[in-house]
Amino acid sequence: MRMVELMTRVWLFACNFMTLSNPWFLAALLAILGVFHLDLLATLLNLSRYRLPLPQRLKDVFDDETVKKAAEYAGRSARVDLIRDAFLLAVLIGVWWSGGFAWLDVQVRSWGLSTLWINVVSISGIVLCRALLALPFEAWETFGVEAEFGFNRTTPATFIGDRLKGLLLMLLLGVPLLTLVLWFFQTQPLAALWAWICMSAFSLIMAWLAPRVLMPLFMKFTPLRDGTLRTAILELAERLKFPVADVFVVDGSRRTSKANAFFAGFGKTKRIALFDTLITKHNEDELLAVLAHEIGHCKLRHVPVQIALGLVESALMFWLLHLALGSPAFFEAFGVSGRPLGLGLLFFTLLYQPAGLLLGLFSSAMSRRHEFQADAFAAKACNAAPLMKALRKLSVENLAHPQPHPLTIALRYSHPPLGERLAALERLL
Ligand SMILES: [Zn+2]
């Protein structure tokens, strides 16, 4: 593309912006800039709170050295995130304002594919490009920051293997689903409804499939060998009337030294999975308390509630998508003519960011509420003291922020900060 032509395009878009002739244009620009700056604000506010004096409850958890290290770790991570986000934002605006989307549309059309495939190819191409652009930053985070603070155990081979497996999954699962959704929008009047039904079915199937098929692709599940820990876990499950199919150890230590525990599976075939890192760092009482917390989530039906909320959220998203795709001005705002659906879906993801953020506030607030409830369940089942000990250890080990800022909590925390959890558990002692 010649320089003059490029400048003309940028100028035309600038005029579009200045005259505010296209409301979609302004909305999309405000959406991406707004989300970027809100995120930045949350990061800065959060970093400033490492200097606050610790409340009594946290004084024996975090010593000065740990707080200093946690602040450095958060600072380095935030820098990588900020540079990555600013870079991706600049590329996006550059491509958008120089007419790059229209150019891509013309190129793919010239290949002589059917409309459906044109859309599938252009959307997959853009998703792939974005992932490739973000890849160096992921490597920097893993082998730079995480390694520097002693968390990283991932080898370059595992790192590359994980990405290749991810790509393969995208081709096997993501592309067929995308094709189906695009086909609905191309042929069905009630496309948004069909797409929603189809996506909901897909996410339910994935919830079932993930622990059985997908997770074992990335992690190795070994049955926990017979011993006091296994007996104690099965006894706890029995006492809480929680049917367990088996207890597994997961080789989390191959990637990170951070510890975790989770449950997998619906219905009667629940598998308990403990990270090997969790087992090495906690004594039996603490492990049982952590498991009781996880059992609490299941017993209190937190998973179905979250899934139901997810379905409501996606219904809203598809309704908004229906409105956007029906408007020619929406496509004009991104400089493409006609109504190429594939690109329309991508533009929509930009516009949807603020709505997604608002819905995220609600769902993470609910998730934090669920954490308090699961903590209370565990305290009742196993006594609050070992859970408090385990939570303290996990926070220090993972260099958690001792006192995160309320805005950051609202935006990013699916779990309440340690101080709040300890305060709630103290009341149950
Ligand atoms: Zn939990």
Summarize the model shown:
The chain has a domain of 293 residues. It is 75% helix and 5% strand. It has 17 helices and 4 strands.
Topology:
Layout: H1 3-19, H2 23-48, H3 56-59, H4 64-97, H5 100-109, H6 115-148, H7 156-187, H8 191-218, E1 221-223, H9 228-239, E2 244-250, E3 261-264, E4 270-275, H10 276-281, H11 284-299, H12 302-325, H13 328-332, H14 341-382, H15 384-397, H16 406-412, H17 418-426
Parallel strand pairs: 2-4
Antiparallel strand pairs: 1-2, 3-4
Helix pairs in contact: 2-4, 2-14, 4-6, 5-6, 6-7, 6-14, 7-8, 8-12, 9-11, 11-14, 11-15, 12-14, 14-15, 15-17
Residues 293, 297, 371, 374 line the site of zinc ion (ZN).
What does this structure look like?
The protein has helices at 3-19, 23-48, 56-59, 64-97, 100-109, 115-148, 156-187, 191-218, 228-239, 276-281, 284-299, 302-325, 328-332, 341-382, 384-397, 406-412, 418-426; strands at residues 221-223, 244-250, 261-264, 270-275. The protein is mostly helical and 429 residues long. The chain has a domain at 23-188 and 300-426. Strands 1-2-4-3 form a four-stranded mixed sheet, sandwiched between helices. Bound molecules: zinc ion. The site of zinc ion has 4 residues, from helix 11 and helix 14.
